[in-house]
Design goal:
The chain has 89 residues and is mostly helical.
Length: 89
Amino acid sequence: GALTPMARPNVVREETFEALQERVAALEAIVIEMGHGQALRDARSDASASTRRSRVAPLTEMLNDLHDSPPEEPMSVKKEKAAIDQVIE
């Protein structure tokens, strides 16, 4: 007989895929509205790059990264993270 969607686990129903696309679009709109459009573009670029062959950084670059202290987050970022944490909890 014909294969059902359950018999083919890698096949996603078109309705399910469209619903996921709508949800992603809504989440992206929220991220942009929160002022993180550049971060979204960077994440898309990173995701796209991760599907390509990755480049290993030179050893000296990796070692330099170990010695650099992380930059202090601006207060606005700390407040926004706290607000997000409150919504999530």
